Amino acid sequence: KVMKRTANRPIPMGLVPAWAALWFGLALGVLSVVVCAVWLNTTTAVLSVVGFIYYAVIYTMWLKRSTPQNIVIGGGAGAVPPLMGWAAVTGHVSIAAWLMFGLIFLWTPPHFWSLALLKNEDYRRAGIPMMPVVRGARSTKVQSVWYAAILWLAGIALYFTASFHWIYLVCAMLIGAAFFAVTVKMLREPDNENVWVRRTFLASLLYLPVMFAAIVAGAVL
Asked: 114, 131, 160, 221: which could join 201 in a potential S-S bond, CB 3.0 to 4.6 Å?
């Protein structure tokens, strides 16, 4: 209710009661586990439970309001789907799957911190200790560049874990370099300006679909 970016959503506006959202979320979570256990395999079902608890309890209920590293640690929750997808098809989790997990995990800080820089006053007003609120814009940007650099390397490393076509390696190098370059531009921008902060956020929205499209292309060629 306090933050402008979320004030008009159904629950803060009172259109959906909090208790109804809670039970709906719990029902979907339980149903997802049942679907995975019955129609897929135990490994996928267990990963579903881990992802659900990680996101809803560890990240949302605990980390979000307790540490500026909230989305860094919590990023693992959003990175569970590639592990589930791999396990659903193969019944196990491989190094390639963990590196795809790593892509989302490492992508999360520059993605969410660029948004947090744009909505800094919102988070400050709500008392949520996002990195820009606690450490300031400069430290947040420096850390984002480091994550983007490691993300670039992780994308390249993925090529060597499975039978990918060389076209994936080229794409991974170019996509990673482009995203890294944007975060560097953000770092070089004065902290009272948000042109490259906004561009970094927009680039982060493009990064995952483009990168995973390259993974699919590299796998089928």
From this structure: 114
pLDDT tens column, 32-48:
999 999 999 999 999 99
Residue 88 lies inside a defined structural domain of this protein: yes
Question: Range of 122's domain?
Answer: 10-220
User: What are the backbone dihedrals phi and psi of residue 127, each rounded to the nearest 5 degrees, phi first?
Assistant: 75, 25
Q: Is residue 5 one of the residues assigned to a domain?
A: no
If one counts every other C-beta atom within 10 angstroms of the C-beta of residue 19, the result is 8
CB 85 within 8 A of CB 95: no
DSSP string, 121-134: HHHHHHT---HHHH
In angstroms, what CA-CA distances link 158 with 91, 108, 152, 186, 205?
A: 20, 18, 10, 27, 21
Instruction: From residue 77, give the alpha-carbon distance in Å to each of 80, 92, 188.
Output: 6, 18, 31
Look up tokens 């902290």; give the residue: 191
Q: What is the 3-state secondary structure (H, E, C) of 107-175?
A: HHHHHHHHHHHHCHHHHHHHCCCCHHHHHCHHHHHHHHHHHHHHHHHHHHHHHHHCCCCHHHHHHHHHH
Asked if 186 and 144 touch (Cβ cutoff 8 Å), the reply is yes
Angle at 190 between CA 186 and CA 196, to 5 degrees: 30
